[in-house]
Amino acid sequence: MAGSDAPIVVLxxxxxxxxxxxxxxRALPYEQIVYFGDTARLPYGSKTAKVVTQFVRxxxxxxxxxxxxxxxxxxxxxxxxxxxxxxxxFPELEITGVVEPGAKxxxxxxxxxxxxxxxxxxxxxVRSRAYVLAIQRHRPSAKVICRATPLLVPIIEExxxxxxxxxxxxxxxxxxxxxxxxxxxxxxxxxxxxxxxxLISQIVGDQVAVIDSADQSAQDVRLRLGxxxxxxxxxxxxxxxxxxxxxxxxxxxxxxxxxxxVTDDSPRFATLASRFLGIAVRxxxxxxxxxxxxxxxxxxxxxxPF
Length: 306
Ligand code: DGL
What we know:
Helices cover 45% and strands 14% of the residues. It has 13 helices and ten strands. The chain has helices at residues 18-27, 49-63, 76-89, 99-109, 123-128, 130-138, 152-157, 165-179, 197-204, 214-227, 238-242, 267-277, 289-303, and strands spanning 8-12, 33-37, 70-73, 95-96, 116-121, 143-148, 185-188, 209-211, 258-262, 285-286. The strands form two sheets. A six-stranded parallel sheet has the order 4-3-1-2-9-10, with helices on both faces. Strand 9, helix 12 and strand 10 form a beta-alpha-beta unit. The longest helix has 15 residues, at 49-63. 45% of the residues are buried. The model is unreliable at 246-255 (pLDDT under 50). D-glutamic acid is lined by residues 12-13, 16, 42-45, 75-77, 122, 125, 153, 190-192.
């Protein structure tokens, strides 16, 4: 069984899950985090549930020897399409997604019995209606307006920043129909989008609360690990756990805490990850998709009685 020194695994199709890594590290600075970005098979947002479930299954299967104490599917698309299936496949693991925390954060930010809440996300997340269901579970009369914004992931993975006029144009076009419905909150329903958060906030204006799932996801991980007695920092007691997390600067990390894997050796990954996290991220280890497929077949064969 995974003990308190085991790592937390965080996975996504690319860079986006680093927004969740950042929040987890701030909430839990003593934890080791293993990050897996499936860069060769990105984007997940245009794929079917069957394929995305297979990808996530392969990644978890590959990382199983690390005996992670918690797995965060830091991808809204994979959370929406694959979370229940993956939980069933790995009943021994504690696995959480980011849609439920995102919905919780939106409800907290949206006052009234029937708030109008905008959600921007990938095509697959929008099609799944995961956010509508999750938000209306908490607030049945909420009006949830979802808009697919498929160009944003490639734009962000390309390293384009808010200063780029193309980025602004794209966001303005995508957001206009959502803003026409006068939402009080806008959920960034893809873990890549907080990378453009400042520009998005500027475009939607002060009246609209811009929400993402990263901080809420980190708090959920913290509570779950705390109640399972698996926090790495031995002195952290329950009272401390329940206090809002202190935010130490990332550079002051007490130990090398992040190890990254990717499925394609993009020189861009380490550069963009370093730019985003504000620390020098080492070159990630490359695990080609072939190895993930082969590894899954080996696991399936060794599970066979013959
Ligand atoms: N970051 C991901 C999400 O939260 C997925 C992006 C993609 O690969 O399409 O949905």
